[in-house]
């Protein structure tokens, strides 16, 4: 996969919470860190607006990023982002260095295809439930997908799709499944409509009541 994302960074020497606050308030910069690989962790700063713009693209979260750090380019992926709880402000970012020859672990979004024509929803009237929206994967940087697709067109009411139902691209494996079948978690299902479920519950209760009354008569 080509490296379409690039960010310009500066080395940061002034540490501490006070320094980070000044950096954000006075310089419109975001404190960040690069770690991993054969190099020591390095504190950096990024232009807030440039990073904010990049984060608006879903692919940025699961893509190789080129960090241009004062004449030195490093290949990284975004590992964590901290945002202000009530303001559109990015507080901190963590980046992990990647190597072309070493597999990386990261999360990629799951795109559910054909939800609008899913047989359990149309004409079944079922209710979609997504129990997982991103997948933890392992692969070489060159094989890193921007997202994983899962076709749900044939899912009927009551059906459950698991991680093993996802067709992964070549060179990509599920971290969960690498730990065994017990980790084959549910990803997508179509539940019964609430009205239908309620009617079945009532019918079941009436059947139980009838059985109890019948048993009482026999006594």
Layout of helices and strands, plus pairs?
Layout: E1 5-11, H1 17-27, E2 29-35, E3 42-47, H2 48-55, E4 65-69, E5 72-83, E6 90-97, E7 104-113, E8 127-130, E9 134-139, E10 148-151, E11 160-162, E12 173-174, E13 186-191, H3 194-218
Parallel strand pairs: 1-4, 2-6, 7-10
Antiparallel strand pairs: 1-3, 2-3, 4-5, 5-6, 7-9, 8-13, 9-12, 11-13
Q: Using the coordinates above, name the CATH class of the largest domain.
A: Mainly Beta
The CATH topology of the largest domain comes to Ribosomal Protein L25, Chain P
The overall number of domains is: 2
Whole-angstrom Rg = 25 Å
Q: What is the CATH homologous superfamily assignment of the largest domain? A: Ribosomal Protein L25, Chain P
Proportion of helical residues: 10-25%
Q: Overall 3D geometry? A: elongated
In the sheet with the most strands, the strands line up as 1-3-2-6-5-4
Structural class comes to: alpha+beta
Short description:
The protein has 219 residues and is of the alpha+beta class. Helix content is 20%, strand content 37%.
Descriptive account of the structure:
The chain has 219 residues and is an alpha+beta fold. It folds into 2 domains: 5-98, Ribosomal Protein L25, Chain P (Beta Barrel), CATH 2.40.240.10; 105-196, Beta Complex (RNA Polymerase Alpha Subunit, Chain A, domain 2). It is 20% helix and 37% strand. It contains 3 helices and 13 strands. A 6-stranded mixed β-barrel has the order 1-3-2-6-5-4. The longest helix has 25 residues, at 194-218. The chain is elongated, with a radius of gyration of 25 Å. The termini are far apart. The model has no long low-confidence stretch (mean pLDDT 85).
């Amino acid at each position: 996969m080509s490296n379409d994302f690039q960010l310009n960074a500066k080395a940061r020497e002034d540490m501490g919470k006070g320094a980070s606050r000044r950096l954000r308030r006075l310089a419109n910069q975001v404190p960040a860190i690069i770690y991993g690989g054969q190099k020591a962790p390095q504190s950096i700063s990024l232009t807030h607006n440039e990073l904010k713009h990049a984060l608006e693209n879903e692919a940025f979260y699961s893509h190789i990023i080129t960090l241009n750090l004062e004449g030195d380019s490093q290949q990284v992926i975004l590992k964590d982002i901290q945002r202000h709880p009530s303001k559109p402000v990015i507080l901190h970012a963590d980046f992990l260095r990647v190597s072309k020859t070493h597999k990386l672990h990261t999360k990629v979004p799951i795109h559910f295809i054909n939800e609008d024509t899913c047989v359990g929803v149309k004409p079944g009237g079922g209710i979609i439930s997504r129990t997982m929206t991103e997948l933890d994967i392992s692969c070489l940087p060159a094989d890193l997908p921007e997202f994983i697709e899962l076709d749900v067109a044939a899912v009927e009411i009551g059906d459950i799709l698991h991680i093993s139902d996802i067709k992964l691209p070549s060179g990509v494996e599920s971290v969960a499944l690498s730990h065994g079948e017990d980790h084959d978690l549910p990803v997508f299902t179509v539940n019964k409509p609430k009205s239908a479920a309620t009617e079945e519950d009532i019918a079941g209760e009436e059947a139980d009541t009838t059985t109890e009354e019948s048993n009482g008569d026999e006594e």
